[in-house]
UniProtKB/TrEMBL annotation:
InterPro entries: Acyl-CoA_DH_CS, AcylCo_DH-like_C, AcylCo_DH/oxidase_C
Organism, as annotated: Anoxybacillus flavithermus
SUPFAM superfamilies for the chain: Acyl-CoA dehydrogenase C-terminal domain-like
Highest taxon, organism lineage: Bacteria
Keywords: FAD, Flavoprotein
GO molecular function, one term: acyl-CoA dehydrogenase activity
Protein's name in the database: Butyryl-CoA dehydrogenase
């Protein structure tokens, strides 16, 4: 889990660095959003599994983390849209 989280963080930092320096960043930002959203969902689903039945109760914040992770795959362009953006940028 930690490796995937760090990789998502670094992809995000790379896209932000490119934007901050006035360089093209469309492909990198789409890759960062795609990977970070998938990673967030994967990690939170695993966390819920670790907690077992308690992972679905409001007694622990894990259930909210999973709901919050799912929305990252939807807003500002779904994962499918991000894949489309990436593929178009790669074929240029």
């Amino acid at each position: 889990m930690a490796t995937a989280i760090e990789a998502a963080r670094l992809l995000t930092y790379q896209a932000a660095w490119l934007e901050s320096n006035g360089l093209p960043y469309g492909k990198e930002s789409a890759m960062a959003k795609l990977f970070a959203g998938d990673t967030a969902m994967k990690v939170t689903v695993e966390a819920v599994q670790i907690f077992g039945g308690y992972g679905y109760t409001k007694d622990y914040p894990v259930e909210r983390f999973m709901r919050d992770a799912k929305i990252t795959q939807i807003y500002e362009g779904t994962q499918e849209i991000q894949r489309l953006v990436i593929s178009r940028m790669l074929t240029k």
